[in-house]
């Protein structure tokens, strides 16, 4: 049993990324609705740094963090959906095939939103930090940013519904392991990362977010 307790579902850098990403997406949405553009911009740049980290971590993180672990073929996705409809779920560590593709969507859409935001403008009070580099694309970026706004809401709603379905119908708590990193009772986990790899991951995440924030300084002084 002691050996089993050492195994994790999610490594520490991934768990911190998950909650930081969730806070950033929600914070970006709220600040955007309130028209607090300076805060909105900061959250957007944080999303860019976090997604870049997640892509890198998808190749060098723990087993469950790697894309190769959860991006599978359509047959596995169909099998998972069929099992969920029957209120069945395996105890395999990490994302299911369906959850894996949902994760990719949840990463790409906010990232796309943040990128279009960097070259967007309202022609009055706000210009994105890279607006001066892509002025001819600003109008299209603004339109795509607006469309993405609704896609993010839809994805967030589906994500919450999926968590609720797992909890109520399948009796599987997806939130607790993302907080503690530990698998549920009788569920499998994966070998934890070394302390040096964990520290590297934390520094990598903080560094990439810091670089994304520093990119705001590329905005010309007259903007």
Low-pLDDT segments: 1-5
| CATH topology-level fold name | Fumarate Reductase Cytochrome B subunit
- Please tell me what the overall shape is: globular
The fraction of residues in strands falls at under 5%
CATH architect. name: Up-down Bundle
**Roughly what percent helix?**
55-70%
Give Rg in angstroms. Answer: 19 Å
Distance between the termini: 60 Å
Count of discrete alpha- or pi-helical segments spanning 4 or more residues: 9
Q: How would you describe this protein?
A:
The protein has a single domain, classed as Fumarate Reductase Cytochrome B subunit (Up-down Bundle). It contains nine helices and no strands. Helices cover 65% and strands 0% of the residues. The protein has 223 residues and is mainly α. The N terminus is likely disordered.
Comma- or semicolon-separated keywords:
223 residues, Fumarate Reductase Cytochrome B subunit
Overview in brief:
This protein has a single domain (2-218), classed as Fumarate Reductase Cytochrome B subunit, CATH 1.20.950.
Topology:
Elements: H1 2-5, H2 12-34, H3 37-60, H4 67-70, H5 74-85, H6 97-118, H7 138-168, H8 175-180, H9 195-214
